[in-house]
Automatic annotation (TrEMBL):
This is Energy-coupling factor transport system substrate-specific component. It comes from the Bacteria. Keywords: Membrane, Transmembrane, Transmembrane helix. The chain crosses the membrane at residues 24-45, 57-80, 87-106, 112-129, 136-157, 163-187. Pfam families: ABC_cobalt (PF09819).
Length: 210
């Protein structure tokens, strides 16, 4: 009887926190990343006419440069490594860009951010938020680029010729893999090596590799 009583009254160890649960530090860092990316997005938009002009020789090729606008979601996911990080960071970046001022309008800018973040989020979801290597980052960038292309073609280029649609879509996918996949992976890896991400799984994983 006493043994049973001791078993019943013995304090239980606290349950380990879910690796998918967002902490306050996750929200803060994701917000900071989103704000910083939003300023970059705004600046990229200011120079967009001049930046994209050399690519007008093949209409649709400019989508490869536009993929810089989808990089925030991939970077956020690689750093935070939690469900929803890609959508959160990309949407915050789009909202900041819209608030500062953008030629494409506030609502459509934020809407694009949500769609592009979702494109990256789906890829990380397919890997159950367990794989964070360069190939997956490139796939996420390509997914965000594809989402951008679909959104742009529907809202900004309806009724375009097949050639333009094909070039724009392929450019967005390839550009997304490189600009929004490789570059965020390098950035996240570089941040982890400095020790700035020690409170995150991304930072601890980098430390184990070293």
């Amino acid at each position: 009887m006493s043994t049973r009583t001791e078993t019943l009254t013995q304090p239980q160890a606290p349950a380990a926190p879910s690796r998918f649960r967002w902490r306050v530090v996750d929200i803060v860092v994701a917000s900071v990343l989103g704000v910083a990316a939003g300023i970059v997005f705004w600046a990229w938009g200011l120079g967009w006419s001049a930046i994209s002009a050399p690519f007008q020789f093949l209409p649709g090729l400019q989508a490869s440069l536009a993929t810089l606008w989808v990089a925030a979601g991939v970077l956020g996911a690689l750093v935070i490594r939690k469900p929803g990080a890609a959508i959160f960071v990309e949407t915050v970046a789009a909202a900041v860009s819209a608030l500062v001022g953008t030629q494409w309008g506030g609502f459509l800018t934020i809407e694009a951010g949500i769609v592009q973040g979702l494109g990256a989020e789906i890829i990380f979801l397919l890997f159950f938020y367990r794989v964070w290597n360069l190939p997956v980052a490139m796939l996420a960038g390509a997914g965000a680029g594809l989402a951008m292309a679909i959104n742009d073609l529907v809202l900004w280029y309806p009724g375009s010729a097949f050639g333009f649609v094909a070039v724009y879509t392929i450019s967005a996918i390839v550009g997304g893999a490189i600009v929004a996949g490789v570059l965020p992976w390098l950035a996240a890896t570089g941040l982890a090596r400095t020790g700035a991400l020690d409170r995150f799984a991304s930072g601890r994983a980098s430390a184990r590799r070293v």
